[in-house]
Write a structure and sequence with these properties.
With 297 residues, this protein is an alpha/beta fold. The protein has helices at 39-49, 65-73, 116-123, 141-151, 181-188, 195-205, 244-257, 262-277, 289-296; strands spanning 3-6, 10-16, 31-37, 54-60, 77-83, 90-96, 102-107, 131-135, 154-158, 176-180, 210-214, 220-223, 228-231. Helix 1 (39-49) crosses helix 7 (244-257) and helix 3 packs parallel to helix 4.
């Protein structure tokens, strides 16, 4: 069983600021640092760091070749990544404030130049029961989901960043949603803030799917037709939350595919995310499995 993550690859420009820029305001940053990033890349790095066999697919410009080395170092197969002759790699402008929170401006670049021919060629290397992991930072998601479903692949969707493109997808084909409370509200049209309410609405709308609902400091929930499980967070000094959710997603999926129980997988993911938020940057903040086990055992 293999994991294909067809997702974004970004160059992250991280500005350290006292507070986020407000409308009409000009401020100076304390520093500017370049990191490997993109939700797709981050989740692949987390999957690889957790020990999963993962292939990453996507597109970069020649300015993003160093991103491939980031993936390789985490044990990710990059044979399905295309390097475009023209155009820029996707990038992000990230403000990281004194409390460790962030706000992000994305430029899609090569992430928005995925072709159906590329998708067909990539999927030809995968089979029924393999996993396809998706986020909302590449184009042609509707086609990706449809073609993967036709092959019998199991589809995992993190609908972030949430926008109208998500509703172009046949969401009834998704096997597992990994999402936060805001994304859950957008998908269901719900206004309730209680986790039980959000999960009930999700299950009503997508009765065949499973859900991981992440709630920041309030922990995370897993729900399917048979069970609901809550996972608390592990304490950490917050430096940068940029890759926390992606770390959680990657570690949870890797543990599930290894055969761990849902509870054990949630617990491992929470431990890994706690380490990630204590470090700066996106992909560089994601810990290796031995670090997680050493710190929390």
């Amino acid at each position: 069983m293999k994991i294909l993550n067809f997702g974004s690859l970004n160059i992250d420009n991280v500005y350290q600021v006292d507070h986020f820029v407000r409308k009409g305001e000009t401020i100076s940053s304390k520093s500017l640092t370049l990191f490997s990033g993109g939700k797709g890349l981050n989740q692949s790095v987390a999957l690889g760091s957790a020990g999963a066999k993962v292939w990453h697919a996507g597109s970069i410009g020649k300015d993003g070749l160093f991103l491939l080395e980031t993936l390789r170092t985490a044990g990710v197969n990059v044979s399905c990544v295309r390097v475009l002759e023209e155009g820029k790699t996707g990038n992000a402008i990230i403000q990281n404030d004194a409390e460790g929170d962030n706000c992000i401006l994305l430029y899609g670049g090569a992430n928005q130049r995925i072709t159906r021919e590329q998708i067909d060629e990539t999927l030809s290397h995968f089979s029924a029961e393999d996993f396809l992991v998706l986020q909302n930072e590449v184009n042609e998601l509707h086609y990706l989901v449809q073609k993967a479903h036709e092959k019998g692949m199991r589809i995992v969707l993190n609908p972030s960043p949430m926008d109208e493109k998500i509703f172009e997808i046949n969401l009834s084909l998704v096997d597992l949603f990994v999402l936060n409370d805001l994304e859950a509200a957008e998908l269901t049209g719900g206004t309730g803030t209680e986790p039980a309410t959000m999960l009930a609405l999700l299950q009503r709308k997508f009765p065949s799917a499973c859900f991981v609902l992440t709630l920041g400091p309030q922990g995370a929930y897993y729900a399917d037709a048979k069970q609901t499980i809550w996972q608390e967070i592990y304490p950490a000094k917050v430096v940068d939350t940029t890759a926390a959710g992606d770390t959680f997603t990657g570690y949870f999926l890797a543990a599930i595919l290894e055969g761990k129980s849902v509870k054990a997988s949630l617990d491992l993911a929470a431990k890994a995310a706690a380490i990630a938020v204590s470090r700066p940057g996106a992909a560089p903040s994601i810990p290796k499995l031995d670090e997680v086990l050493e710190m929390w055992n």
